[in-house]
Amino acid sequence: MKMIWRISIFLLLLIPAGISAQSKNRADLSTPYNAAYTHLYFLQPDSYRPDLSARTMQGVKDEEEAQSLAIKLKQIFDGKGLYVALQKIPETPDYRDSLSGKNQYFLFPNELPDVYLEKVGDNWYYSRQTIERIPTLHKKVYPFGSDLLINLIPKHGQKRFLGLALWQYAGFFILVLITWIGQFFLSRLLRPVVNRLSRSRLYPAMVPSKLVFAIARLASIWILILTWLWIIPLLHLPIEWVEIIMISIRIGATILFLVLGIRILDVIILYAKKWAAGTSTQLDNQLVPILKRTIQLVLIFAAVIQILRLLNVNVTALIAGVSIGGLALALAAQDTVKNLIGSAMIFFDRPFQIGDWVIGDTFEGKVVEVGFRTTRIQLLDSSIVAVPNGNVANAAVRNLGVRTLRILDARLGIAYNTPPEKIEWFLEGLKKIIVAHPMTAEEGNRVFLSDMADFSLVIMYRAVINTNDYGEELKVKEDLFLGAIRLAALLGVEFAFPTSTIHVDSFPGHPPAAGQPGPASREEMETAVDRLVQDFGKQAYKTPPPDEAL
């Protein structure tokens, strides 16, 4: 009796162990988690049971084909460096996908959208679409076959050292050696191709050979690094290693592509500068470096987004957060945004160009540079003032640099006691002085008695000057003013100035005061004026160039 009791207790103690052993040797497909676990667990070296792993292949009746598909699917995960995070897989039997609403679970929705689990009856299996896509995906990951290097290495190469087989170490060495040798030859093969694509018939020596070789070398390294994506899976490394290596390769390829894009941009900018130098406006010369910096920022931003995506960062949420923060920053920095928009308006409307003399509400000088935020203007004292582009775009800017003609527009005030005959002779002489100067136009000149002001008779003295040089303009104005002054002295015409005077016709016992003497008769007056105009014309023709005059 005691023996039976002891045997019963012993059997009861063995029941949990038997249950545990049974759970490790059967395929549980009741949840997405159990299905993925069954597929991967029974393909591990310590628990290798491909017959149980093949149970996850839906509708495949051939046992050998099902096992081959299960092994190939795991090799696809390993070759692409996709680590299955089992702890994130739902353990709910009735799990439904949030997008489709069906009993489906996608292991890698971005990398492998065709590979997913679905519920059939009470169990979860890999879908029929997944099973149909496995051979194609496997061929894409292993274009030379998954056992290429294994078959090339002798049997003693299967010995393991520090977790890896000797043939895997040999594969690493061969891969690095091939990359180094391939880069040496491929860069020299690509150099004439790059030189051919970057060369122009009009400007064959525009692109430096150093830049051509740099582009060819970067392109060769980028191509060889991409080939690692097909070679690394052949080494059959642990999934943790493959995941890190694959991410590193993709990040490195992204950085190389960024640098390569910037170098290609340098070639484009060289031709853009040549084009800008041939345009009529110098503003294009300022636009080229701004476009270069803008495109560089766009390339860098795209590369950063790609790297974040490779690191499994939620880029959508990040961009949404950055957008909200950017909106708040834009509200806090409205002036900066206004200046950026102002710079765009300046380049589109082109109210002036580099070298023009402009006059605004708060500035006057020569335009030196137009940047992202400010326009640099050189003042008369050669100092530089940076005017915000927002102010420039909103201001009424007077561009003196586009003038083809210059105008002398003066108002000459003469005394009220000037006799009408002298005024007529003075007006006629001013007209002849303008016509006699070689740098004045034939039309558009105006000389009139235009106003009777508080303290003077106002004469409009307007002359159109045929020049667009500032120094020459000043010299012509000087000639015309000196001619007017000499004519007034000849005729005895006095220029008025703002004063307060008391006029007394006569004191007791004194006769009235006489005016200033002038030529006695009209004939003498006309002769004297003509002689003065002739002398003025001869002197004006001898006017030295602006640089010498200044």
What does this protein look like?
The protein has 550 residues and is α+β, with helices and mostly antiparallel strands. The protein has four domains: 25-141, no CATH class; 161-313; 331-401, SH3 type barrels (Roll); 405-499 and 516-549, Alpha-Beta Plaits, CATH 3.30.70.100. Helix content is 54%, strand content 13%. The chain is built from 17 helices and 13 strands. The protein has helices at 2-23, 32-41, 50-53, 63-79, 128-141, 148-152, 166-198, 209-231, 239-277, 283-310, 315-332, 334-349, 389-394, 420-436, 470-491, 522-541, 546-549, and strands at residues 104-108, 112-120, 123-126, 160-161, 164-165, 357-359, 364-370, 374-378, 384-388, 398-399, 406-414, 446-452, 457-465. β12 and β13 (457-465) form a beta hairpin. α4 crosses α5, α7 (166-198) packs antiparallel against α8 and α9 runs antiparallel to α10 (283-310). Mean pLDDT is 78; it is low at 1-23 and 512-516.
Going by helix content, strand content and strand pairing, the class is: alpha+beta
| Total strands | 13
Write down the overall mean pLDDT: 78
**Range of strand content:** 5-15%
SSE pattern: HHHHEEEHHEEHHHHHHEEEEHEEHEEHHH
Count of alpha/pi helices: 17
Q: End-to-end span in angstroms?
A: 135 Å
The gist of it:
This protein has about 550 residues and is an alpha+beta fold. It contains 17 helices and 13 strands.
Ordered list of secondary-structure elements with their pairings:
Layout: H1 2-23, H2 32-41, H3 50-53, H4 63-79, E1 104-108, E2 112-120, E3 123-126, H5 128-141, H6 148-152, E4 160-161, E5 164-165, H7 166-198, H8 209-231, H9 239-277, H10 283-310, H11 315-332, H12 334-349, E6 357-359, E7 364-370, E8 374-378, E9 384-388, H13 389-394, E10 398-399, E11 406-414, H14 420-436, E12 446-452, E13 457-465, H15 470-491, H16 522-541, H17 546-549
